[in-house]
Design brief:
- The model has no long low-confidence stretch (mean pLDDT 76).
- 79% of the residues lie in helices and 0% in strands.
- The chain is built from 5 helices and no strands.
- By secondary structure, the protein is mainly α.
């Protein structure tokens, strides 16, 4: 199952990136104006990062739901395979005398195939729930870039 990017307003990306451009510092700007700009830009940045984190976590919750659904489906398939195997064992015991093995061999093969499919579905669901898939990687990367940008402005 392929992950899709969270639905973030395209204008958000442009405004966030536009706010990161360095503005020339003139000699006529007062310290109060600089601090005012810093406060305003920091507030905007924090708000935009919160919006991105919210959108990304919504996506991750959706992925968790898909993973749980895949695990539930896998469990149901394994259960159906187990029932088929029980029927095969039952038919095998009923045919204890060595006649034709087709009456129990066919349900046995079908049951094993169903169980294999169930394990595949469980593995897929487990992969969807792995910690690396749930980390808000774009938000972490954006915060890292913001930290570097602030360090540049300070130094």
């Amino acid at each position: 199952m392929e992950a899709t990017a969270p639905r973030v307003d395209p204008s958000y990306e442009r405004s966030r990136d536009a706010g990161r451009e360095r503005q020339p510092l003139g000699d006529n700007r007062s310290l109060i104006a600089l601090f005012s700009d810093l406060f305003r830009e920091t507030s905007t940045l924090v708000h935009q990062e919160a919006q991105l984190a919210k959108a990304e976590m919504s996506e991750k919750v959706s992925e968790v739901g898909k993973g749980i659904a895949a695990i539930a489906i896998g469990g149901a398939i394994i259960f159906a395979g187990f029932i088929v195997l029980l029927f095969a064992a039952s038919n095998g015991l009923a045919m204890f005398l060595p006649e034709e093995h087709a009456m129990w061999l066919a349900p046995l093969i079908v049951g094993l195939a169903v169980i294999v499919l169930g394990f595949i579905a469980l593995a897929t669901g487990k992969h969807e729930l792995s910690a690396s898939n749930l980390q808000p990687s774009r938000t972490v990367e954006s915060l890292r870039r913001d930290t570097e940008l602030v360090k540049e402005h300070v130094s």
